[in-house]
Predict the structure of Tetrapyrrole methylase.
Amino acid sequence: MIYIVGLGAGDESQLTLGVVAKLKSGLPLFLRTKEHPMINFLEENGIEYRAFDDIYIKHDTFEAVYEEIIEIVKEEAKKGDIIYATPGHPCVAEYAVKRLLAEAEAVVLGGQSFLDPMFAALAIDPIEGLQVMDALDFDYEAIAPKQHLIVPQVFDQITASNLKIDLMEVYDDEYEVCIVRAAGSNIAELKWVKLYELDHNFKLDNLTTIYVPPLKG
């Protein structure tokens, strides 16, 4: 059995008791990435893990990265029960999880998605209209510009540059957008920039999401 666990958007205070107990169960633990605030909790509690960050370096595309992760997790699960942990909620913007649920004996145990902390950090109400579009599968033609737009998985400068070009098809070059990093954690950062600056020298990593406010009028 593969127990798929979401590590939430911040520290262990966001996790259910059940998820914490599973992490402490002694089962082999595999992390999509160790770039997450929960790493401190795992290490302070002596919880051993294998992170897949090295796989990101090996491949030129995220598709290849996820394929290798999926195969490793499936092979490890043949030896016995394991835990596969992702940032946020496993069912939000996690391609590998979709595949594992379809192809292996797996169950999702939960986790808080990045969306709730984003709403709080930006003081926005999704009832006003909200779109969430993956940066790795972005389609500017599908944008509803009068709605809030949240774009997760802006891992690096190349992804940010491609996203900027797409957004410029809809918004003015000087339209203000927000780079949100680690929302909901004690290292959260919000930086408002002009759209044309989006791929400039800002820290972008696994915890980065871009917010585009709705057009007025």
